[in-house]
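Suppose you are handed a protein chain with no further information: no name, no annotation, nothing but its sequence. What can you learn? This example shows the usual starting point.
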Amino acid sequence: MARNVAFDLNHPHMEAGLESPIDEEGVHDSFSQLIAEQSQNGGASDSDAFELQELQRQLDEEERDNVAFLSGPGREFQGRRQRDAEWEDADTQAVPLIGERWSSATLKILSSMPSRTIGRNRGAIISQYYNRTMQLRRRRQSRPAIRDFSHSARPSIRGYGIETDSADAEVSKRDRLVNNLQNLSVSDRIRMLRAMPLNVSEKSELRSLALQKEKHTLSRRIPCCSQLKYYIINGARQGWYSWLSFLHSLHLWQVPLKRVSGRFGSGVLSYFLFLKTLLFFNVFLFLVTGAFMVLPQELHPPEPSAGRPSFTGLELLTGAGYFSDTVMYYGYYCNYTLRKSCRDDGGVHNVSLSNGTMPDCVSKHLSYNMPLAYFFTIGVSSFLTCIILVYSMSKSFGQSFRIDKSHSILAIKTFCSWDFKVIKKSSVKLMSENICTQFKELLAEVSHKQVKNTRCQRLWRLMVHGLAWAICVASTTACVLAIFYCSSYMHKNLQFFLRSGVPVTNPQLNEASLLALPVLVSLINLLLPGLFNLAAWMEDYESPSVRTYVSIGRNLMLKVSVLGVLCYHWLGRVAADPTTIGLKCWETFVGQELYRFLLMDFIFTILDTLFGEFLWRLFSEKVLKRRRKPVFDIARNVLELIYGQTLAWLGVLFTPVLPAVQILKLLLLFYIKMSSVMMNCQAPRKPYRVSQMTTVFITLLCFPSFLGASVCVTYTMWSITPSSSCGPFRELKTMFQAGKRWVEELEKDNPNLSVLARAHSYLVENPFFLFVGAGIFLIVIYFHSQVVDGQRKIIGLLQEQIENEGDDKKFLITRLQTIHEQKRTPARRLASQNSNC
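A reasonable first move is to predict its three-dimensional structure. Written in C-alpha cells, the prediction is:
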C-alpha cells in the first residue's frame, strides 16, 4: 500500500533544499553541461557508472515502499515515522497534492525533478559557480572535465542519497572559486556574487577573500609607481562613492516622508510627494525667470517714477502700493536694450537703443534686449516645463499601470522588502512601520471581495449616486454664478467711481476692497468640498480608493469652473478695455490679482488646517470624549495644490517673481501640513493601496492645469494689445511682434539671415506650429500608454500561462499516481492469492 508523505522541515537536506539559485535556467544549463561531459568522456570511472546503475536499480524497485529515499541516506528518518504521522494529517488538508497517498515510484520521480535537486548543498552551489567563473575567465587553460573533480565537488543530480561534502573538499572548492573571482573583472565579479544563492555574510566573505588575494598579488607583481597609481585610483573611486552617498542623503524630506508613509500609507504619502514635485517645478521656473528677466532688470533699473507710495504693510496682502513699481510686476520692465555707456568718472548708466545715445561708446559694450529676453524666457520656460511634465507623466504611466497583483506583491514584500544596510534604531523603526502599513494595504486589497447586489439594490444605489451628483453640480453652478456676478459688480463699481470723478478719500480702504473677490473664491474653495464629502458619505462607497477618485473629480470640476470665470474676468473684461476702469497698466493689475488669489488661498488653507483638523481633534477628545481623529482629505488638498500651481503658471507673464512666492508657500505648507497630519489626523480605518494616485495627480497637473494656463498665456501674447505706457512690449500691437522686430533687425544688418526670419514667421508667429507640437506630445503619450497597455496584457497572458502550467503539472502527477496504482493492484492481488495458497 502507498503511504502518505510527511516532509521533515528540520532535516538538514530539506533546509538546504529551501535555498535555490536565482537564475534557475542557468543552473539547469550547467547541470546539462556536466551530464554532457560525463557522457562524452568515454573513460569515465567505474564509480560513476556504478552510481548511475545504482540510481536506476533503486528507481525500479517497486516493493520497497519507503520514503526514506526521498530525504537522503540517513536512517534516523525511519525512527521518526510515528511522530511525523501525528502532524501529517493536518498538513495534508492544507495542500491537496501533498495530501494524496503517493507511491514510492512517484515520489522518486518527483524528487529527481530539477527543481528538487538544485541547491541541495553548499558544495554544489560553489561548484556550480566555479564552473561559471571558469567560463568567464579568458585564459589559456580550458575548464577541467568532470572526471578531474572528486564526487564532493560535483552537483548532485539525484533526489536522494546526497553525499555530504567534507571540510577539506569544501575549502578547496572555495579556494578555486576565490581564485577564479580574482581573475574576473570588477563588473563580472559583482554580477557573479549577486547571482550566487548564498547568504549575505558568505558573499561578503568571498568578496573580501578575492580582494585580499588581489591586493597581495598586486603588491608582489606591480612596481612601486604602479602601486601608488592603483591606490590613488581606488581612493578616488571610494571618494566618488562616498560623494554619491552624501548626495543621496541630501534628498529633500526623506525622514518625514518615510514617517508619513509608515503611519498613514501610500495615499497621504502621495500628497506630500506631489507637493515636492511642485516645489521642483517652481524652483526651475524661478531660476529661469530670475536669471534672464529679474536679475538683468534689477541690475539696470529704469528711472524711478515720481510720487512713488511709501510702504505701509498692507502691500503684503494686496500686492499693490509700494510693490507696484518693482521688479515684481510686468509694468516695471523696460522696453529698450540694456547697455552700459562709458563715462569719465567710471560710472555706468542705461541707454536706450531707440534714441542712440553715445553711439561711439555704446557699440563697444555688450547689450541685452529686454523685450526679446522677456518674450523668449516665457516661451522657453513654458516649453521646457511642458517637456518635463510629459516625461514625468509617461514615466509615471509606465511605473503605475503595470501588472501588480496583490498576491505576487505580497510575496515580494515578505521576502525582499527589508534593507539590511539599515542599522540605526530610528531607521529600523521607520522601515518596520512602513512595511507594516504596506502589508495592511496589500492584505486589505487581497481580502476585498466584490459584493453582488440585487436589482433593487443597484437601482437604489444608482438613484443615490444621481442625487449626490446633482447636488454637487448644482452647488458648483451656484458658486460659479456667484463669483461671476461678484466680479462683474466690482468691475462696474470701478467704472462708476471713474465716471463720477469722486476723489478717493481713503486709498488704503480702496486698496483693501480689492480683497473681496479673492476672499469669496477662497471661501468657496474651503466650504464646498465639505458638501462634496457629505454627498460621498451619503453614497457610502465600499472602496476607499473609489471614493477618493470621485472626490477628486468633483473638486476638479469646481476648480476648473472657478478658474474659467476668473480668466474671463481678467482677459475678457479688464484687458479688453482697461481705460474704462482707469488702468494705465492692466498687466500689473492682473498680476496683483493673481498675487492676492495665491495669498488668500494659502491663508484659508492654514485656517482650514487650524479649525478643520486641530480644533476638531480637541473638540472630539475633550468634549465628545472620543479618540477618533479626522482623516486627511487627499482629494481636496491635492486639488488645492493644483489650483495654486495654475495661478502661478498664469501669473508668471504678469508677475515674474510669483514662482518665488509659490516656493515660499509650498515650503511653509509642507511643514504645517506635516505637523498637522502627525498630530491631528489618523490613518484610514480601511487601509487601501493607491498604486495609480501619483499618475492621476501628474495627469491633472498637465492637462487641465498647465494646458489651460498655456492657452491663456498664449492667447494674451498673440491677441491682446499690451499697455502703451508700461512694460517691455509697449507701443506694440501684440507681444509676439517683439520677436518679429528683432528678426527684422537681424535681417537688415545681415541679409544672409533671411532664413531665420522665414523660420520665425512659420514656427513662432503661426499658431499651427503650436498645435502641431501639442499634437505630437499627445501622440507620444498615447503611444506610450498603448505600449504599456500591451505590456500589461502580455504579462497577464504569461501569468495565466504559468498558472495553467501549474495545473498541468498537478494533473500529470495525479494521473501518474493513478496509473501506478492501477498497475500495482493486479500484482498485489496475485501476491495475496499466492500467500493464501
